[in-house]
Structures are given as C-alpha cells and as structure tokens.
Amino acid sequence: MTSKRKEKPTPVKKVPTKATKKTSANNKAVTLREDPTPYRFNTTAVIPKEQGTNPDALRFIDLFCGIGGFRIAFEKIGGKCVFSSDYDKFSQQTYEANFGELPHGDIHTVTVADIPAHDVLCGGFPCQPFSIAGVSKKNSLGRLHGFDDAKQGNLFFSIAAIIDFHRPAAFVLENVKNLKGHDKGKTFEVIYRTLTEELGYTVYTKIIDAKSVVPQHRERIFLVGFREWRDFEFPKFPEEGPKLGSILEPKPEPKYTLTDHLWTYLQNYAAKHKAAGNGFGFGLVTGLDTTRTLSARYHKDGSEILIAQKGKNPRRLTPRECARLMGYPETYKLVVSDTQAYRQFGNSVVVPVVEKLAKAVKTALKRPAGEAADLVLRDQNQPIKIVTDLPHKPVKYPQKLNKRKVSSK
Questions:
Q1: pTM of this prediction?
Q2: Residue 123 and residue 174 in contact, taking contact as beta carbons nearer than 8 Å
Q3: Domains of the chain by range and CATH?
C-alpha cells in the first residue's frame, strides 16, 4: 500500500529577531523588546491559577478575552495566562469572578511594550463589523462596518502591532464565518497579507462548526499562525455531536417561558416574513435537536433558540444552559444579570473547539521548526506503522523579506 505526502504551503522564513529598541506609542519611553526564553512542555501538569509559576508552561495572552473561553481551553492543556484584556466592564466582572484577576481595559490604552513576553497570542477580535447580522444592522442605520468601523473594525491592527513587537511563536485568532467574504473578500485579504507578508508568519485557516462538540450549529473561522514554518493540521472533529437534551435543565424557572404577548408577536412576525419569501423567524427546537447559533442579542426575545414545552408557550434557554451550549464547565460562575450573561455567551468562543486547537498548536510547537510531522500509514490487517525515514527535500527560503512594519499607534 502506498501513501503520498501532502503538499506543504510555501514557507516564509523570518530572520531571527534580535533585541531592538522600540518607542512606546503612549509614553515614548525607549524599551528593549523582550524575547520569550526557550520553553519546555510539561504534558502532565495543569497550572492552577494560584500556582502559576511553572517555567515549563506555555505562556499565552488573552486579548479581547470576554469571559475567558480561550483561557479555559489553553489552561486545560497546561498553559499559563500572563495577560488579559477586554474593554467591557460586565465581562471584566465575570472574568475576575472566575479567574481571580481583572483584565486590562481597552487595548488601545495598553502600551505594547508593557504586555509580557508570551509564546502564543490568543484573540477573538470583535466580530460585529464583519458578521452578517452586524453588517445588515449597520447598513440599515447608515453606519460604517468592517475596517471602516473606527471603534471595532481596526482592532485587528492592535493585534498585528503586538505580534510585530513580541514575535510570539504562534497565534490563534477567531472570528465569524463572514469575515472571509466580507467586502467581497477584501477584508480577509488585508488580514491575511498583514499576517503573512508584513509579519512573516505561516498562516493556516479553517471554518469550524461547533455542532460536533456542543448541540449548536456555530461556524467560526480560525486563523492559526506560526513564526517559523511548522507542519500543522487542524484537529478532526466527530461526525455526530450531542443533542440539546443533554444540556437542558429539568425544571427551569417560569420566568424563562415566553409571555402570550411575545409569543404571539414572534409568530406573526415569522408569518409575515414567510409570506414575503424571507427566511426570518424563530427557531423552535426540542431536546432531540441542534440549535441555531446563539447570538449576543439573545436577551431581546430569544427567538433564535426557543425550547418547545408541552401544553404551554416555548421558553428561552437559561444562562446556565447557554454556558453549557458554549462548552463551559459546571463550576463556571455566573455573576451578572441574565441580560449580560446572554450577551457574554453569545459573544464567546466554544471552549471544546478551542481546546482541540490548543492541543494541536502545542503539538506543532513541540516539533522542531521546519520539521514535518511523522506520516502515519494505516492497514486494516496490520498495526499502525510510523514512517520516519521518508526523504525530505530542502526548503528554499526567499533571500529578502518585506521590511514594512505595522504601526503600534
């Protein structure tokens, strides 16, 4: 039996970074770039937040951290969070209650040089300027979206400035599926070219549907980048995932059942749009189903995910059920109002998806840079064989690199 080795993407080799002087955008103080010291992996120990001093831990920063979905995932694989940031005060409250630290505020107010050295940069930068719902809403209000959204659309360049300064070994970024098609693909092209041509990283991208690990149809695009070329494959996910019944509470409080007025309104609204040939309407599900995507607007009427109830009006998910729908552990503390909790979980990453990605990134970083993964050949009648002696062709790197830099201002 034969097996062909997969074609590798054209690598871009970054010249080793030396300590260089940088001028802070905020205080103009001259500082030295802090390169991360070589790290080793402890594959058995998970670092408790109160004992986070293990030098072998994979250090990561949690940008636009929300309520800590990235942090939970990376801590599960032995990572140590060294910096977090989010501008929303209610998300900061939830984050502090669960991790014992208050995230820094608006990333624009943080001097790039003051962010600690790290091995992996994590960030689910705000998606509303690129989401289908966000674009539609802004268009209807005559507002700008995408990179033209001055408040949220340019936050990607804050990430680029941090990567440019600190040169982490890897990064994991997350956004809505529509990012790839926004503005006829121009938005994604700017992001991809910035990460690859400007910053010199090898970037892998994939749209992942979380329905294989949680009972929710939720497609998000992930961008995984490496400073040096590394052989990386996105993790495989199960074909069948759990169903909604696995996360539902047996006796939810009556307040989550829709009032007669709201239920009548939603039915009439759906009927009107159906008659007009539109696809708008509520999503009514049972415990045997997979839900639509939970959104940050769920607190308004809960229309995208309504749970059918025998003999009475349907109900919303409870905040705890939303936490489960996003893969958060039962020990996760809910300390804000229902309205804020719905917003927070609607904006979050799905924890089990990120955990699988974190494991794959860690595996790639454990291999020497430039080395391909061992090829596994399977034969139904033979045990698994690891092939390690296949010939390797030398990689030719470009002699000159693009020297343009992304401003940290």
A1: 0.76
A2: yes
A3: 21-241+349-387 (3.40.50.150), 244-346 (3.90.120.10)
Tens digit of pLDDT for each residue in 261-292?
Answer: 999 999 999 998 888 777 678 999 999 999 99
**Residue 382 contacts residue 370 (beta carbons within 8 Å):** no
C-alpha distances in angstroms, 126 versus 268, 296, 379, 380? Answer: 33, 12, 46, 46
User: Around Cβ 381, how many Cβ atoms within 10 Å?
Assistant: 4
Strand partners, 253: none
Q: Report residue 9 as tokens.
A: 């993407």
List the structure tokens of 235.
Answer: 């993790």
Residues catalogued as catalytic: 127
Q: Which of 187, 184, 163, 185 is nearest to 173 (CA)?
A: 163
Query: Do residues 291 and 308 touch, judged by C-beta distance below 8 A?
Result: no
pLDDT digits (tens, 9 = 90+) for 198-227: 999 999 999 999 999 999 999 999 999 999
CA distance 47 to 59: 11
- What b/e sequence results for 2-37 when a residue is b if at least 16 CB atoms lie within 10 Å of its CB, and e otherwise? eeeeeeeeebbbbeeeeeeebeeeeeeeeeebeebe
CA distance 334 to 326: 14
* Calpha distance 222→173 (Å, rounded): 6
